[in-house]
């Protein structure tokens, strides 16, 4: 059991690193790209937001869930009754809902705009408004991820 538990816990931790790392790094380089005001740079960065979300965020979530639930199962933990696990799951779901219903739609709209202005169209004001919302909600969505990570380390509040 210890080897299996340790391997699953490692997958879980790698998932957290991929997820939180991508969320953090992507927002920083997107802010810097937007700061150039160069349509080609911004369009490239916007495209990478989508690519890295699918590659790092998606697979980070898969590893996090498979490793976490697998480790809990092997260790005999109750993922529906152990408070620290339940609260971590709630935080994870809150972050996921923000990502799915607010951040992804913003990213899609910005990506469509970026394809147009990469070919020479002006950058519309709506792009900048959406960019501010994306950063704001991205920060908000990161808070429950950090809280869940803290609960996992502390095994509760």
How does this structure look, described?
The chain is mostly helical and 157 residues long. 27% of the residues are buried. The protein has helices at 2-36, 39-75, 83-118, 125-154. Helix 1 packs antiparallel against helix 4 (125-154) and helix 3 runs antiparallel to helix 4 (125-154). The mean pLDDT is 94. The protein has four helices and no strands. It is elongated. It has one domain (2-154). 88% of the residues lie in helices and 0% in strands.
Features:
157 residues, mainly alpha, 4 helices, 88% helix
Radius of gyration: 18 Å
What is the percentage of strand-forming residues? under 5%
What is the N-to-C order of secondary-structure elements (H for helix, E for strand)? HHHH
Instruction: Determine the fraction of residues in helical runs and give it as a percent range.
Output: over 70%
For the record, give the distance between the C-alpha atoms at the N and C termini, rounded to a whole number.
27 Å
Total count of domains = 1
Please tell me what the overall shape is. Answer: elongated
Q: Helix/strand/pairing class, anyone?
A: mainly alpha
Task: Count all strands and give the number.
Answer: 0
Short structural description:
The chain is mainly alpha-helical. The protein has four helices and no strands.
Furnish the topology, listing elements before pairings.
Blueprint: H1 2-36, H2 39-75, H3 83-118, H4 125-154
Helix pairs in contact: 1-2, 1-4, 2-3, 3-4
């Amino acid at each position: 059991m210890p080897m299996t538990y340790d391997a699953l816990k490692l997958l879980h931790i790698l998932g957290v690193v991929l997820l939180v790392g991508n969320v953090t790094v992507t927002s920083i380089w997107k802010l810097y790209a937007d700061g150039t005001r160069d349509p080609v740079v911004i369009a490239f960065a916007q495209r990478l937001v989508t690519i890295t979300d699918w590659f790092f965020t998606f697979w980070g979530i898969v590893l996090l869930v498979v490793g976490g639930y697998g480790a809990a199962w092997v260790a005999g933990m109750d993922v529906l009754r152990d408070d620290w696990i339940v609260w971590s799951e709630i935080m994870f779901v809150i972050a996921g809902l923000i990502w799915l219903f607010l951040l992804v739609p913003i990213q899609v709209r910005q990506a469509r705009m970026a394809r147009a202005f990469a070919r020479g169209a002006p950058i519309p004001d709506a792009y900048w408004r959406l960019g501010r919302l994306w950063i704001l909600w991205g920060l908000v969505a990161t808070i429950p991820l950090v809280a869940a990570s803290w609960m996992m380390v502390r095994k509760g509040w």
